[in-house]
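Case study 2.
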Amino acid sequence: MIDEYRIGPRIVVIGGGTGLSVILRGIKKITDNLTAIVTVADDGGGSGMLREDLGMLPPGDIRSCILAMADEEGLMQELLKYRFTEGKLEGQSFGNLLIAALNGICGNFEDAVAKTNEILRVRGQVLPVTGSDVHLCAVLANGSLVCGESKIQPEVLRQDSPILRVHLNPEKPAATAKALEAIHRADLILMGPGSLYTSLIPNFLVGGIPEAIKGSMGRKVLVCNMMTQPGETDHYSVWEHAARATEYLGENIIEYIIANNEVIDSEALKAYIEDGSEQIIPTQEDRRKLEEKGISLIENNFVEIKKGYIRHDADRIASVVYGLICD
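Prediction:
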């Protein structure tokens, strides 16, 4: 059960990838009643290696969220982020190995994640969306079927054919009971930011998750990405992010969408543009379509640039979230 004595509103954040962990660093400042529900469809990098070698669920996105929400600082944080640079473990994260070891000790992934939460004194809890071994597949506009989360973007670019739809194999795996409980009890459900088709939508493909979100009394908020993602959301607008999420989540569920309206400095954008990304700025057409669907647009300057990377300003997002709950 979620601890009744934690302080603050009950906030659930759903997604995966770097975007989610960035937002969690801001949200944990306004509540201890924080739950991150994270996709387990990743099959690339160090997570993919452990998944293949040990037959366990991928720990990468889970690890990133745990680090974002942990109270442990200093050397422990550095240790968990450390990546081996040579030998058979080259590229592997020590944090991934810790979760893998606990998976062996506990006998299942969900308990391993819970024990990691405990060891690192996570402010709230990080939960896998499902305990099932799932693979993400995409049907492209040309009819091709691509299976494997890490293969989708490269194949879209290679075949020059956009994503038509995605699904999990097996379809509609059961959601973890704790994830459903957290959604049911939430005062606010924050979805995203992150890769739309490979980090966010996979959560909506898990059995019981869309229904739980729809049935929750909490406010439902989508965070729009600030940049398009080559091979995934090329030329997508704010409205298209909301529309694609709605296809998998269901109509009349998203109540608010948070979007950045600040034009990003050209020097910061340069590397992204060279990579094929475009900045996403709300347009009058976005505003009109969102209003027609009853979705309130919250737009402001949400940009933070760190070490050349464009990120959401986690504290500003947290301030908006707190305001929505207190309103």
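The CA atoms of residues 266 and 276 lie 14 Å apart.
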